[in-house]
Specification:
The chain is 56% helix and 18% strand. With 167 residues, it is an alpha+beta fold.
Length: 167
């Protein structure tokens, strides 16, 4: 132990010098780390500050509210679309028209049979027959492409055209 004590006493100046150099290196490293930390803090603050002076948290909360409102609107529009699709299935979507001359003394194909059907092939077939003396209009119900009433060839053809109509 005495040998160590003698070594320290003999080299005291050198040991103090080495310790001062180590202390100086530690101080320099601390200054470097503090400067880097300061720069990082400045970048962090600039990131958190928005263009209108709001911080990032306020901006995110505001955008979250906008997103919630948008999702609610999308749900409402989806419900309305579903309702519109259900209604459109029942609306007239298939149309067939056949023009014809009902009588030999009448020209110009002024008589017609008009089929108006939905996607389920339900609807009506309207027939209008014109002659020189009079004109008559008939309306017959159509269910699944068929009618319980007797149909003329033109009415059958109008229904067939409507059923083949692509929509």
């Amino acid at each position: 132990m005495e040998l160590l004590f003698n070594f320290i006493m003999a080299n005291m100046v050198s040991i103090i010098f080495v310790m001062l150099v180590v202390l100086l290196v530690v101080v320099v490293l601390c200054v470097v780390f503090v400067l880097r930390l300061y720069k990082s803090l400045q970048k962090y603050k600039s990131l958190l500050k928005g263009t209108e002076g709001k911080n990032l948290e306020e901006i995110l909360l505001e955008k979250g509210k906008v997103l919630e409102h948008t999702l609610l609107e999308i749900k409402i529009l989806g419900d309305r679309l579903k309702t519109a699709e259900e209604i459109s299935q029942k609306s007239i979507r298939k149309v067939g028209l056949v023009r014809f001359d009902a009588f030999q003394d009448t020209g110009g194909e002024v008589s017609y049979a008009l089929a108006l059907l939905n996607n389920a092939a339900d609807g009506v077939v309207l027939s209008s027959i014109f002659s020189q003396e009079e004109s008559r209009t008939y309306c017959k119900a159509v269910t699944r492409g068929e009618s319980k009433h007797t149909l003329s060839e033109e009415e059958k053809l109008a229904i067939k055209q409507a059923l083949n109509h692509k929509c």
